[in-house]
């Protein structure tokens, strides 16, 4: 373990926050990009989905790369590639170039979160891991929290290009801190495992087919068409083939972690949370800046309380997790998060500002009380040898759930919009009703995660101690 764990934690927080900011800073600027490039909503959504898909395709490589080049070079290289991608995004003159540059960004960003979480897990003992994850989560959640506000301010005064320039100074600081405080990682032993090309190609086919089926096929032919159903079946086949190939030695991902019930419960909660949050929040800027008529800076300020609450309460949630309140805190977070989307569904013209701010505060509390305890339960449920795989799968399902959530929400939004238009509603009113129904769908979906949350361990450290005694016989 490093001598100064706190400096390692700060270093990881800065690098992670840089990548995390990009997961949401773009959202509030999408309406502006849509107008500048004269693109449809589904076209401009590629700015987000292209990042997510590439991110997904790179995540499974992190465990193999870690073994080949080590944590230090993997983490440093990822940050440098991310900085390059950010610079290319900032000088993009067309939507095509912007989407391509986002792909470069994602190649770097794909390894930052899982690698930093794996480094943190090795740097801190289990009894301190919850608090460390809580503080690390400030960097990981500061992006999604502050991203919309920062994006709105930068877009309003400096143009959308500035939302990518902001990564350059943060990236430089991260590189300097990595060189100073993460050099101990160079001493970690390395190996040269063979690359599972077959497994990776199966994984790529699964991801691309899934995204294509949920976006292009569903919007063009509908959810009940044979084309959509055939796409789902083919996607399931490639997923099954990938899982089957992972049972071989030296596979791309060690899926034996799914034999652990504790890991599975936390994994399911992360999946549902990601599916609901990314899908539900994708349309919030369109609600605020569209039907309600707020400017970019005004909508950004409305999102600010969500960020502030998360920044204040994340360390507290991590401390509570260390003190053995994982299950109760997680359930509280799920209920609060669902309640916030029920409130979003009630927003209409004439809704007072305090009501919107209240919904944002409740959302911030919900996310804080949900992420740190569930992440702690997930990491404590696996062995140290499985840590890299667990963190990769955690990042994988976060992005996959987000990508699928946006795809489903977009298709569902179009379907509901057409229904209201068929009833004779005005286009603007139909758009608003479709957004409201989307928020209600998200609120209900989040509540499904109460089922696995009810079976989370309340006191992880006691559970682990008991399991250790059984193993020792």
List keywords for this structure.
473 residues, mainly alpha, Growth Hormone, Chain: A, 2 domains, 20 helices, disordered C terminus
Protein described:
With 473 residues, this protein is mainly α. The chain folds into two domains: 5-196 and 250-472, MFS general substrate transporter like domains (Growth Hormone, Chain: A, Up-down Bundle), CATH 1.20.1250.20; 197-249. The chain is built from 20 helices and no strands.
Helix content, binned percent: over 70%
CATH homologous superfamily descriptor of the largest domain: MFS general substrate transporter like domains
Number of strands: 0
CATH topology of the largest domain, what is it called?
Growth Hormone, Chain: A
Q: What is the number of helical segments per DSSP (H or I, 4+ residues)?
A: 20
Radius of gyration: 21 Å
Question: What's the structural domain tally?
Answer: 2
State the order of secondary-structure elements, H for helix, E for strand.
HHHHHHHHHHHHHHHHHHHH
> Main beta sheet: strand number and arrangement?
none
* Intertermini distance: 29 Å
């Amino acid at each position: 373990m490093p001598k100064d764990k706190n400096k390692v934690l700060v270093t990881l927080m800065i690098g992670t926050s840089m990548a995390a900011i990009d997961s949401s800073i773009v959202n509030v600027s999408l309406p502006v990009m849509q107008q500048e490039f004269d693109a449809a909503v589904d076209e401009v959504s590629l700015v987000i989905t292209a990042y997510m898909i590439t991110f997904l395709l790179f995540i499974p490589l992190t465990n193999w790369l870690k073994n080949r080049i080590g944590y230090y070079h993997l983490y440093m290289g990822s940050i440098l590639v991310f900085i390059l991608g950010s610079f290319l995004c900032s000088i993009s003159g067309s939507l095509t170039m912007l989407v391509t540059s986002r792909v470069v960004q994602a190649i770097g960003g794909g390894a930052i979160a899982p690698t930093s979480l794996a480094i943190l897990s090795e740097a801190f003992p289990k009894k301190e891991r919850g608090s460390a994850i809580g503080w690390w989560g400030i960097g990981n959640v500061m992006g999604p929290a502050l991203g919309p506000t920062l994006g709105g301010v930068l877009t309003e005064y400096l143009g959308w290009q500035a939302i990518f320039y902001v990564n350059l100074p943060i990236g430089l600081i991260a590189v300097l801190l990595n060189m100073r405080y993460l050099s101990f990682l160079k001493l970690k032993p390395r190996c040269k495992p063979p690359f599972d090309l077959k497994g990776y190609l199966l994984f790529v086919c699964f991801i691309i087919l899934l995204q294509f089926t949920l976006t292009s096929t569903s919007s063009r032919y509908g959810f009940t068409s044979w084309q959509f159903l055939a796409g789902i079946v083919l996607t399931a086949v490639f997923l099954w083939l990938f899982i089957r190939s992972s049972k071989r030695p030296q596979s791309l991902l060690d899926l034996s972690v799914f034999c652990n019930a504790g890991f599975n419960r936390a994994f399911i909660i992360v999946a549902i949370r990601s599916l609901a949050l990314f899908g539900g929040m994708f349309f919030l800027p369109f609600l605020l800046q569209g039907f309600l008529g707020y400017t970019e800076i005004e909508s950004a300020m409305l999102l600010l309380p969500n960020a502030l609450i998360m920044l204040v309460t994340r360390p507290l949630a991590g401390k509570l997790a260390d003190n053995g309140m994982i299950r109760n805190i997680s359930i509280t977070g799920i209920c609060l998060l669902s309640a916030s989307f029920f409130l979003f569904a009630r927003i209409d013209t004439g809704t007072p500002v305090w009501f919107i701010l209240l919904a944002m505060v409740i959302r911030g509390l919900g996310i804080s009380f949900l992420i740190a305890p569930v992440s702690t339960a997930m990491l404590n449920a696996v062995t140290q040898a499985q840590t890299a795989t667990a963190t990769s799968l955690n990042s994988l399902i976060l992005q996959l759930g987000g990508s699928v959530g946006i795809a489903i929400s977009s298709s569902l939004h179009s379907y509901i919009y057409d229904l209201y238009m068929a009833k004779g509603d005005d286009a603007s009113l139909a758009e608003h009703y479709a957004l409201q129904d989307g928020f209600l769908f998200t609120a209900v979906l989040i509540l499904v995660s109460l089922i696995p949350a009810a079976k989370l361990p309340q006191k992880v450290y006691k559970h682990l101690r008991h399991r250790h005694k059984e193993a020792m016989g």
